[in-house]
Design goal:
single chain, alpha+beta, 4-stranded mixed beta sheet, 241 residues, 8 helices
């Protein structure tokens, strides 16, 4: 009985002498159709053009092969894939926690975080935490969520309406702006700040404004929020205590 012992399976197309068929459907270097030719003739043409014979459709009958510079083709493909990864965007769900009786200053602080997340194209999960007798007043949390949604309606919309989840009430806000658009605008703003700094070398600049956009970013372009930003403020912590 034959048993596969492991090892990687190559996904690279067969080229030149690795092609093992009697004849191929040949495509020329400029995409022109040459027709069905013997493999030996196709290899001869590849040598004549100083190119590679690359099998581009192995499942066809006969297989389709093209004359090309395979090394250049691989390099260009790698660069396209790299550019695609660079522009790839993932919508992240941020979370913001509030208390039903939050004071105005803490509310403005939390709202500022929500505004920043929505501007960056991320969704925001708003959680109202009820404690003790507050659980008998769910309308307080509902009104607070509606107020917050109204305050940021120019940046986001209610994607998931407020609903009770145990001792919490949850609502999800979605951004009007797509993540890719937010990333593009952030890059443009960063380039503009750098250009301004170069044009005015004597003007003091905030290093964070010159070196990057607000917040840190991972390799895939997702912002990594500081835990301190999402932590409850001292006033809320004392209220809970």
């Amino acid at each position: 009985m034959w048993c596969y012992q492991g090892g990687s399976i190559s996904t690279e197309p067969r080229i030149n002498d690795r092609i093992r068929v009697p004849e191929v459907r040949l495509v020329g270097p400029s995409g022109e159709q040459v027709g069905i030719v013997p493999l030996a003739k196709a290899l001869e043409l590849a040598q004549e053009y100083d190119l590679d014979l690359v099998e581009v459709a192995a499942s066809a009958r006969p297989p389709v092969c093209k004359l090309m510079d395979y090394g250049k083709f691989k390099y260009e493909s790698a660069m396209k894939a790299r550019e695609a990864r660079k522009n790839q965007a993932h919508t992240v769900i941020k979370e913001m926690k509030l208390r039903p009786k939050i004071d105005p200053h803490d509310y403005d602080t939390k709202k500022g975080h929500v505004v920043r997340f929505l501007k960056q194209g991320d969704k925001v999960k708003i959680t109202i935490m009820f404690r003790g007798r507050e659980q008998s007043r769910p309308e307080l949390g509902y009104r607070l969520l509606q107020r917050l949604a109204s305050d940021v309606e120019d940046l986001g919309f209610i994607e998931s309406n407020p609903k009770q989840d145990g001792r919490n009430m949850i609502m999800v806000l979605g951004p009007h702006k797509k993540k890719t658009e937010a990333m593009a605008e952030a890059r443009q703003a960063q380039e503009a700040r750098k250009a301004e700094a170069k044009a005015n070398p004597g003007k003091s600049q905030n290093p964070a404004d010159v070196d990057g956009v607000e917040g840190e970013e991972g390799d895939d372009g997702i912002e990594i929020a500081d835990d301190a930003e999402l932590a409850e403020t001292p006033a809320e912590a004392s209220a809970e205590a």
